[in-house]
Amino acid sequence: MFQVQLLLSLLTLSFTTQSYSSTSLLSILQSKPNPLSIPVTKFGAAGDGIHYDTVPIQKAINACSVAVSKHRRQCHVIFPPGNYLTATIFLKSGVVLDIHKKATILGGTKLEDYPKEQSKWYVVLAEDAADVGITGGGEINGQGLKFVQRFDKKKNVMVSWNHTRACLGDECRPRLVGFIGCRNIEISDVRLIEPAYWCLHLVRSDNTSISDVTIYGDFNSPNNDGIDIEDSNNTVITRCNINTGDDAICPKSSTGPVHNLTATNCWIRTKSSAIKLGSASFYTFKNFLFDNITIFESHRGLALQIRDGGNVSDITFSNINISTRYYHPSWWGRAEPIYVTTCPRDATSKAGSISNLLFVNITSTSENGIFLSGSGGGVLSNLKFINMNLTYKRWTKYPDGWVDYRPGCQELVKHQTAGFMMEHIDGLVFENVVMKWSNDESMRWNNPLDFRPSTVNNISMLNFYSRSYQQ
């Protein structure tokens, strides 16, 4: 009930409309009474995709911000049809980027296009802002393919700016859109395309609505996550189409908890996990609802990768249609439709806990089974699988027979595949579960349940069926 109330309250969220008035600004403010609007072309934006429009765009945002403070109404920065090449632009309170359906904001591809601090490497960035958003039907494009050093169908090798000492590791690339420490965010009717790194990133933000957003990233590029919800609460995602190489919807708890997340009516395809909790998981994940979602040919479907001692509870996955398949082993995942794990990342990490998970009305076709793995210090408890229709068959040539614990833990472990592979669980309910196995002669596995009784306790089964079928 709480999750339904949360969804209704967030979907009906009305942003505080602030306004202002200045004689110098009124000459360029359009005549719409609500909201105010300023086109970037008024400040000289060329929109030719060649010359940088950073300065006129930022001037339009700043002018809107002044107008907001004086008129107490929201202000839209208008992008008419065109291609607007830019370095980082900074969104401010009360300002909405309104991108025409034939307009594109193009992110720069040079290190000098971004601030000195790596934490601020975004094409569009809002910090400590309220009542902000992006809309209009247009596109923000990170030109991610220009960051590919070598194209490879297994996994592209990406450019890294670590040689400049601006950052460490091989993930030194800019994100596309970020909201850091913000509240009352509305992102709707916009296309977020080809990020060089993460696409849409919420950090320590509260009250966010994401609707009718299309996210597309190169399928062979790593780290181009769709939506990362980090240390942020009260988030609603609805009617989004996410087609990308890395994790599609990914809550992370790095410096604080993540509570009250709802995602509904979405379509997802990814070479990694469609929905993944973690692997940054130091704090609590609680009160999540994922409903009416289609996951198409992803490497992993619903995944909980708890590696850093955080606690997960009260998560519902309902009315979800999943298909998963093997891709190259360099990507985490072995075609599991559902993957729930709590193993510590390394010797310095402690085990987290996962409790009160409900999977209801789930249909899947997959090349691997469901993997449920607690750990000695962090068992899985009170897991329910109700109205499950599971089909297992192989249609790719990649080798099977492995259990994938990555990141960290035991990495890849040779193991016989089964419908449910289980360890370290206390409290497990199966109700109305139908498991079908391909009758193809090449199939070498049709084991419904694989577990050691010493580590799995309190199992309840009602109407559990397993049978083969002819393709």
Automatic annotation (TrEMBL):
Transmembrane segments: none annotated. Residues 40-97 form the Rhamnogalacturonase A/B/Epimerase-like pectate lyase domain. Residues 1-21 form the signal peptide. Belongs to the glycosyl hydrolase 28 family. GO terms for molecular function: polygalacturonase activity. It comes from Nicotiana attenuata. Keywords: Glycosidase, Hydrolase, Signal. One of its GO terms (biological process) is carbohydrate metabolic process. This is Polygalacturonase. It holds the Pfam family Pect-lyase_RHGA_epim. It comes from the Eukaryota.
